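ok so i was messing around last nite and threw this chain in just to see what happens. nothing serious, just curious
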Amino acid sequence: MRAFSTLLVLASTASSPAAPLFTDQAATAFGGLALHSRSVSLADVDTDGDLDVLFQGTSSVSNNFNRQLLRNDTPPGGPLAFTNITGTSGPVASDTSGWSACWGDYDGDGDVDVFLGQQNPGSAVGDLFRNNFIPSGTISFTDVTATTIADPGFHQCVGWGDIDGDLDLDLMIAQEGPEPHEIYRQNANGTFTAIGAAAGFHVPYATGLYGKAYGMAMGDPDGDGDLDIYISTCRPGGNIRNNFFRNDLTGNTVTLVDVADTNGTQDFENTYHAEFADFDDDGDLDLFMVGADGEDSKIWRNDGGGSFTDTDTLRGGPLLTYNGGDFNGGRAIDYDNDGDLDLYFHDRMAANGRDNARRLFRNDGGWNFTDVTHTVGLASSNEAAYDSAWGDIDRDGDMDLVFPNDTSGTEAPERLYISSASENGNHWLHVRLRGLPSNTTAIGAQLYVTLAEGTSEERTLRRDANSNAGTFNQSDLPVHFGLGTATVIDRLRIVWPNGAEHQLTGVSVDQYLTLDINTVPVGLSLLGDEP
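result:
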């Protein structure tokens, strides 16, 4: 693990590369699609190995539907190509104003289904669409909301995960209100039961120190094998607290205890995006949150034992040297494939006292980050977005940015920023997990990559397979590692959602690797019990 210092702060780069790292190729790829969109989610809807794109938003008269599903038909090594399949295959049956979305194979049939959140509290329910994809290539969806999940409310944040430890997918919903947060536990017959109140997930709405949910992080920061939840909140006037729900799972009974006051992450400011990620390569999950309404964004270092440290105290100053706008989305992402996690931010108000609504900060170590927005090509236009998604759209080994344009609250061109970081000399690995009888895409799996093992430069990177990271969106579920200059992976360790562990040594870099839990390849040793 690299040593972390406590030096200062964020700087701005002074020089520019010969060519921008990111170029907007949406006009070619998406055919000039323009929406009043609020969210975007990425998923391999047709199981062909590449990422398809779903946009959601408010009324879109010129495009007929508020939801637009684009199938990725890009040939290997060929030009970007997407087909709009909304009218024939897309999940548009109850086409009210869309908000959040999350994909997961809740029925265990091998394709990903989707829950679509709404923004009309009390008058609309979220929609659960079962994917009917068949190997011939036909894509269609069935609206199963009435028989599965019919949750009313303003679904700011949604995510699939195994909250009760029974190895199938449950659905977590963090609400803006007035409806309370909810957990839908999946039953053996594919139906769902609301357990939020019994589990302790219901919290008072907009009373006292409680506010509207604007971010939800899910993961296992305390390392006890179950799923914990962090809720970031926002309310005019601020002075509200966030919620850190520790899961004290007993058998399959979920008990959530809010420990934000004791572990120090209550953060009495307005915050949006929240995400668990391992920033310091120590194997546990730290917490990243985006400040809204001019409040500070923060990274909380996980110190183990249920305690966290605000990294402002380690670097001697705030994470960002300026804010002043309304950052409401973000992502921890390794955009340059150097092995550490960089920070991406965006603003829902384009003209809000800064020259660009998108911001990308490079991780320089020691909890310090440098603003590289202008040098990498993301400052070409000052456009607003509620949330964005990252994934390797063109399958070249680096992470691309899909940007749902919400500038001026009107229909505007969607953006697709394709990265050329895979040409910078750094290496990478992309891992897809398969084979569990339910939760077939292994949501909740933990992956560890060890580089330079046995030397003074040894480091172990952790990335998790997570269906939720942020406010409204879902990024690439398969796990991406930037590897820096490493030319071989000494050790790849997978902790599957069912507790089984696999280990692979001498893994080649620069590849898409698919691992099936039921098919152990040569060189892969089983560390845990057979599934």
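not much to say yet. Helices lie at 26-29, 86-89, 196-199, 260-263, 312-315, 373-376.
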